[in-house]
Amino acid sequence: MNKALLIVDVQNDFCEGGSLEVKNSLDIIPVINKLIDKFKQLSYPVIATKDWHPSNHKSFASVSGGRIGELGELNGIPQIWWPDHCIQGTKGAELHPDLNTVDTVIHKGSDPEVDSYSGFFSASGKPTLLEELLKKQKVDTLYIVGLATDYCVKFTVLDALYLGYKVIVIKDGCQGVNINPEDSKLAFSKMKEKGAEIISSTKLEIQTK
Question: Alpha helices of 22-163 — where are they, by DSSP H?
Fold first, then answer.
């Protein structure tokens, strides 16, 4: 079995002080950094995803004319209108500076016509380069952390399970937007229902190759 650590969207705009900040997001960075160090020590891949939006992305309320946080529709797909965030080439799109170095970055959300919560597919089903990378590295088990539990982490986990990966979600390495108070709790329940293992980093044991 070949394992990989997948870090979802720990970018400045999603961290505290960013344009779409997740409350208490900085609390997960020390947890993730310990995992990065452990995976590198064992010579397992460390991969990060990044939202990489053009400035005219239609999920932005400023572009589509919606109100931030409200539900609308984008090209026939239900869409929450977001503040401008993670615009290509901006500081907000960079991985948080306190995050340890990763091996590879996978970009998502570059098509202005459709959003992309999952690290694997856009909302319209177009694949990113993530699965191609994992196949090349013969990865079959993913340890997933990041932002936000109730959106990009959840959809990345569900797609990984759909594609046949064994998935372990490190609960204290995730934090949710929680537009509704129960969103993260429901997200963890959904991931577990579909086959993900949800554990604390303190209970994590990673076997060598």
Answer: 29-41, 61-64, 130-136, 154-162
Label residue 65 left, alpha or beta by phi (over 0 means left) and psi (-120 to 50 means alpha): left
- The Cα 147–Cα 25 span in angstroms is 8
Helix (H, G, I), strand (E, B) or coil at 34: helix
Q: Can you give the pTM of this predicted structure?
A: 0.96
Q: What SS3 state is found at 48? A: strand
pLDDT, tens digit, 9 for 90 and up, residues 149-184: 999 999 999 999 999 999 999 999 999 998 787 999
Residue 25 burial class via C-beta count within 10 angstroms: exposed 0-12, middle 13-18, buried 19 and up: buried
Residues involved in catalysis = 9, 108, 152
Q: What single string gives the DSSP state of each residue in 85-102?
A: -SBTTSGGGSBPTTSPP-
Give CA–CA dist 150/20, Å, rounded: 14
Q: Report the distance separating Cα 56 and Cα 84, nearest Å.
A: 9
Is residue 196 reached through a cis peptide bond, with omega within 30 degrees of 0 on the bond before it? no
Q: What is the 3-state secondary structure of 173-209?
A: EEECCCCCCCHHHHHHHHHHHCCCEEECHHHCCCCCC
112 DSSP assignment = T
